[in-house]
Fold these 2 entries.
Entry 1:
Amino acid sequence: MASLPIEVKNVSKRYGDVQAVDGVSLSVERGEMIGLIGHNGAGKSTLFKLMLGLIPATSGAVLVSGVPIDGRDFRAVRRRIGYLPETFVTYDNLTGMEVLRLFADLKQVPRSACDDVLARVGLADAAKRRVRGYSKGMRQRLGFAQVLLGSPDLIFLDEPTNGLDPEGIHDFYQILHEVKAQGATIIITSHILAEIQERVDRLVILNSGRIAAQGTLAQLRAQMVLPSEIRIQLRSGQGSRVHDALASLAGLELKIEQDCVRVSCLPGQKVAVLNILAALADTVHDIAIHEPSLEDLFLGYGGLHGRKN
Ligand SMILES: Nc1ncnc2c1ncn2[C@@H]1O[C@H](COP(=O)(O)OP(=O)(O)OP(=O)(O)O)[C@@H](O)[C@H]1O
């Protein structure tokens, strides 16, 4: 049976008094895209560095493609990994192409691959310009280009869309999904929860060095049972009639603002609310249901309250 791309087995990492990662176990399937989220200081970067073999674990084991990160065979495995650190530092005096050729040499990838990769991230026209004159978004694209060199099997991206404009973010995820379709396994961190919540296969929430929850957005919603918000836009002057009808249902939180009623209700109450609204259809102009976002779930799982620094 082929080895899993990543197996983290009860791993802890301590820096002096700080327990950065605390008993984490995580298995990642081939071709999976994982979103790793957590408050500042939750341990995301430390977990990345452990999985990349850049730092040793205090205890536990990390295997990448079945190979222990502290074993002799890991050097060969590392060549098949692409990594974009949170801050991509490069040589400002070199052109984009020169920087990429340098990475190609380090990764033992033919320099001839650089043209295609630069074009893929939208930097073909800027290839001969010095990086000093690049915008933040262009630098980030260059960082992404070095990740793509050599078509890695396993890709780690730490806050990869920092500095990208909406079009850049769209292009970035489009490339990422193409790479994933070709079989790459991807682990990505982001503080922009709305951005990754629908784009990854599985979310892993880290809180103070531990995995607080993991699953798809739908699974996390089912585990946490947070209220949804139903916003009912009414025809003029119908607010109190609808409000009074809904107030007959126990346990709802209702707010009324002019011709809009907002109902906060648990999943099991939604149908009862909609039944009442159906009976008052002549008063209703529009209905929108807002499910809890990843941000709501994240806050529910400790979110910012777990912040250490
Ligand atoms: N080299 C180090 N020496 C000492 N403490 C460290 C070191 N690296 C990280 N830490 C501490 O370990 C904890 C986890 O840090 P880490 O950078 O992994 O968190 P993070 O989730 O990536 O945070 P952020 O979202 O702010 O980047 C923090 O308390 C941090 O201060």
Entry 2:
Amino acid sequence: MHIVTANEMYEMDRVAMEKGGIDGRILMENAGRSITESMIPLLAKNSRILILVGAGNNGGDGFVIGRTLCNQRFHVTVLQLVPDEKIRGDAAYHKQLYINFGGKVHVDDQGKEIAAFLKEATVVIDAIFGIGIKGKLRPPFHQIIEAVNQSNTVKLSVDIPSGIPADEGVSFDTGVWADYTFVIEAPKMSAFLQHTAKYYGKWEVVKIGLPLASFDQVTARKVWTEEQVHFTLPKRDDYSHKGTHGKGLIVGGSREMPGSIAMTALSSLRSGAGLVSVGTVNEVIPSIVSHCAEATFIPLDSEKGVITGSQCLDYSVYNAIAIGMGMGRSEDTAELTRQLIKEANCPVIVDADGLYHISDDLELLKQREFPSILTPHPGEMSRLTGIPVKEIISKPFRIAEEFSKTYQVHLILKGPFTIVTDPKGKQWVNTSGNAGLAKGGSGDVLSGILLSMVMQPQLLVEALANGCYIHGKAADNLIVNKHSKQDLLATDVIQGLASVFRTFS
Ligand SMILES: NC(=O)C1=CN([C@@H]2O[C@H](COP(=O)(O)OP(=O)(O)OC[C@H]3O[C@@H](n4cnc5c(N)ncnc54)[C@H](O)[C@@H]3O)[C@@H](O)[C@H]2O)[C@H](O)CC1
Ligand SMILES: [K+]
């Protein structure tokens, strides 16, 4: 499933019309018909449906929906929120069809009658604005949208909740708080941004007949779906041995933070890694063993419970390495991080304190011949880039793309919608997971899962996207009957991995 910006969607439209030869009026007909079909299960025969229509093609979709619902004997009222002369082109054509079929249009371009119409309605179909909204809402639309939000109606938005921009990095006034959004052809970026996603309510994609093959030329952003997990997650071969599933090294831990690396080691083993070695300070090894008897250890030189700088580690025997969890932020651990990044001839996952250390040495990443995988949350991304957290949350796709391309890394920008970006800028969004994961230790568990995935026989980006999916899905399964978002702990997520792997094996 592709994710688009407004311009990318217009480009798809252009391709469909100019190259495909399909008429815009047919696309609008398809949009309105498909949405109506998907909407009907949510409607009761006695629903009093109010369709709010704006000036653009989103409003045009509203007229098609109006005609189609009237034709099926639903009780429909269309309220046009702009003067007649503003309804043009394909929307005007479909307005006329709606009228020809016996539909009535009420015009309220001042927003004076909206309250009265809302009072009579049980369902609002929001076709005020689509992806064409620009700048601050002009009067009276702010007031109209607020009135819709305050009304006691079920709110069904067409393509996008009106008022919400399609793109990232765009400020907005207010938007319809939809119960349900029928997204045309491809979800827009704002469905995956934490400040706008909540306006969509539940959403589903409706198809209107755009040439699917063209999406790949128009956008390099996709949702990582459960279906793809089914296709790509390697099945364990009956005749495999521990070597088949990779040997991983985890470097980190300190006297003050022995738990992080223990969780990484355990989650990695629980995700199928053949062998896991932990390079850490001697004194924390017994506590890690108590959680994870299957790991082997490389005691590293340490001072005051923290790993010291130069270590004689043979990186060549590993299929992948993860560094940083609970490691501490001394100059010594910084030196070790730099050394490992320079010398390791296999994929390296850099997390937590490892990310802290490389923030000032990002150029090192460009020199690596093997993949570098960075797993920052927005705070860590802010340190890596010098960009404020607020801006990262507001335009994560663009910032992640630029960073991955510049430093030639695979970036996993963590959040409610984790974005995996490859060094060419291709992106996949993970949608599993819940707020129960917003706790210390979650990242350590994710790093362990990723380490294990990277060592399995699958493409690197698939391994990373699958790792994110599995981590979130374990948490989703756990809050269904065993835990809640409140009490869920990172260690529970490790226990929950079994439920996910069983589904996909
Ligand atoms: N292939 C497709 O995706 C199809 C999508 N369809 C629908 O068309 C809309 C996009 O239509 P467009 O006309 O470009 O934009 P809008 O409907 O969002 O309307 C813009 C409209 O609103 C006015 N406006 C803009 N900004 C403001 C503001 N800040 N305050 C007040 N008014 C504003 C402006 O005057 C414009 O006239 C898409 O979302 C789908 O729903 C097609 O129907 C089928 C193909
Ligand atoms: K809308």
